[in-house]
Amino acid sequence: MSTIPVGISSCLLGREVRHDGGHKHSRYCTGVLARYFDFRPVCPELEAGLGVPRPAIHLREYPEGLKLIESNGSADHTTAMQAVIDGVLPELHDLRGYILMAKSPSCGMTRIKVHNPEGQVIHRDGRGLFAAALMARYPLLPVEEEGRLNDDQLRENFIERVFAYDDWMQNVAGDKLTARALIEFHTRHKFQLLAHSERIYRQLGPMLSDLRSEPLSTIADRYIALFMEAMTRQVTRGAHVNAMQHLMGYLRDALGDEERKVLLEQTEAYHRGEVPLIVPMTLLRMAQRREPVDYLHTQKYLSPYPDDLGLRNRV
Ligand code: SF4
Asked: Which of 12, 126, 230, 241 could bridge 112 with an S-S bond, Cβ 3.0-4.6 Å?
């Protein structure tokens, strides 16, 4: 089975690259996600030549911008980090996602402490220098912090985005772009889009209705930016119920009276938070398997990622 290239902070794979010589091994990443993700580890501080062990560093804000300074103020590693950013980021163009280590002035994505030139904390809303550059260069790339993957909703959302973005990169991006490839991508993600953002779903259809008005690559760029924006939004229970009701409409002939009743009961139970999404979704998949509807056959919403990740048991 082919695996999906995903970047990761090296210390999360158990490599002893932290400033104190330790690691931050994530068993979820190496034990579960590694079944599907081909992890590409990067330790920006090691690449910057800071060595292991090394003095702790932090972010300081100067009029000319953020700098990576040793915590005792003795050395400035900003130029070395910028060289890593310039050298490493171009090589990451084929990634479909990135998992970052939290609380690091290099890798942290959110809530990183920022100090003033004297070393006092002025706010805690910073982003590590490498993480900021990564996200600026690849704005479509699904990026998440490892700690946030403990949250069932955030984990499910991140992994769904990685698989969707992989589909785009494999089948539509670059020299694979054709009108047909773009329309087929949109078709198979329609119900996912509807669940994530009905507003964006309603914008994207018309965008594809006239593919001759502008260069196809311009339309594709606009399409995927909005698509990934939609996919970043958490799906509420109500939005899933709405998408499932649309699906049920297509499965009218495959559902007997009793089955329909059970499906509606379980959809309502899901809406009330009494059963997880996997329950009504499995009933829908059973109906589709018994009397396949061509249009639904390609719908990623029914199976956005491998079942054995167990993500829909927990949302
Ligand atoms: S957080 Fe980033 S810079 Fe720090 S040890 Fe891990 S990979 Fe290296």
From this structure: 126
Please count the other Cβ atoms lying within 10 Å of the Cβ belonging to residue 57: 24
Q: In percent, how much of the chain has pLDDT > 70?
A: 99
Q: How far is 119 from 105, CA to CA, in rounded Å?
A: 14
Distance of alpha carbon 2 from the chain centroid? 19
Dump pLDDT digits (tens) for 232-258: 999 999 999 999 999 999 998 888 899
Buried b / exposed e over 190-208, threshold 16 CB at 10 Å, is bbbbbbbbeebbeebeebb
Protein residues whose CB sits closer than 6 Å to any atom of ligand 1: 9-11, 17-18, 43-46, 101, 104, 106-107
Q: Helix, strand, coil % (nearest 5) of the chain?
A: 55, 15, 30
Distance between CA atoms of 217 and 223, rounded to whole angstroms?
A: 10
Does the global pTM surpass 0.85?
yes
Quick one: which atom of ligand 1 is closest to the CA of 103?
1
Task: State the first-to-last Cα distance of the chain, in angstroms, to the nearest integer.
Answer: 27
Domain borders along the chain are 4-149, 151-315
Strand partners, 62: 65
Output the residue whose Cα is nearest ligand 1's atom 4: 18
Per the model's pLDDT, the better-predicted residue between 294 and 309 turns out to be 309
| Tens digit of each residue's pLDDT (9 = 90 or more) over 141-183 | 999 999 999 999 999 999 999 999 999 999 999 999 999 999 9
Among protein residues, the one whose CA lies closest to atom 8 of ligand 1: 43
